[in-house]
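Sequence in, structure out. Go.
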Amino acid sequence: MLSYSSYMLTAVAALLVTCHALCKCPGPGLSGQPHPPRLSDSQDTTFYDVLVNLKHRLSRLEGVLALKEKIREVGEKMLASNGKRVDFASALQSCEEAGGTLATPTNEEENKAILDIVKQYNQYAYLGIKEGEISGQFKYINGMPLNYTNWHQYEPNGKGREKCVEMYTDGSWNDKKCNQYRLTICEF
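Output:
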């Protein structure tokens, strides 16, 4: 059985090929050349039908994964865990290789969705947040300042020695050394 990331990669590739075949994508074709001539109406309809079918199949796949509690949807984000405990760098790399990034709560609803996965595995998890250049100042891993926090009482307290952030099983956050093994949760 294919992994979730394999399904998603296949679906995205199919959508891109269809997009370029329909000549409805901005920029050059897949080979860098101008788009081929426009398709006939019957070919256009066929590609549209294929696109609708792919969308329907992706929706069903997401439903199956949600039923098996393999993914959580919150707002525009989809969250998933491979159930593995690794250090921060390895967790981030796993998420990026799957086409996402580490789960990064930007509001209470997203924090709760990540917490649901933390509780499912009963393990602390790394978040997509790291300490910046200034000690005690944490940022999202994309460099943006935090617009939401849920620090545990008296946290952060690492004073520059604990650069990463983990989520406890109560949903609160703690600054932690990045070499500890924590649950990987990705967002897409």
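Check: The first helix runs from residue 4 to 21. DSSP finds four helices and eight strands in the chain.
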